[in-house]
């Protein structure tokens, strides 16, 4: 019975679902925890302050960091690269 329900659920509910990539990217950018990737370079206190300011203004950590020029744009983009965050460094 469980196997049958699983197949029906997959056919009627799961099949055809596609990711909304633009919304996923937007949610990633708005995630305040991304500031933790900046902490080794700028320090915990400064990263936490960026996160707090991003939250207070409804902006992304990246936007606030760029505005405050805490790091060069290239380094900021490298540190806030979501693909790089999820894959181990070699």
Measured between the Cα atoms of the first and last residue, the distance is 46 Å
| Contiguous helical run count | 7
The averaged pLDDT comes out at 92
Global structural class: mainly alpha
Number of strands: 0
Uncertain runs are none
Structure characterization notes:
The chain is mainly α and about 90 residues long. Helices cover about 70% and strands about 0% of the residues. It has seven helices and no strands. The chain has helices spanning about 1-15, 20-30, 40, 45-55, 60-70, 75-80, 80-85. The mean pLDDT is about 90.
Note the topology.
Blueprint: H1 2-14, H2 21-30, H3 39-42, H4 44-57, H5 61-68, H6 73-79, H7 82-86
Helix pairs in contact: 4-5
Would you kindly provide a brief summary of this structure?
The chain is built from seven helices and no strands. The chain is mainly alpha-helical and 90 residues long.
Defining key terms:
mainly alpha; 0% strand; 90 residues; elongated
């Amino acid at each position: 019975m469980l196997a049958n329900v699983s197949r029906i659920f997959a056919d009627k509910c799961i099949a055809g679902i596609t990711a909304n990539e633009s919304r996923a990217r937007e949610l990633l950018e708005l995630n305040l925890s991304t500031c933790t990737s900046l902490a080794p370079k700028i320090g915990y206190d400064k990263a936490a302050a960026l996160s707090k300011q991003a939250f207070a203004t409804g902006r992304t950590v990246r936007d606030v960091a760029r505005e405050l020029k805490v790091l060069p744009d290239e380094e900021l983009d490298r540190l806030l690269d979501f693909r790089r965050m999820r894959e181990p460094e070699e």
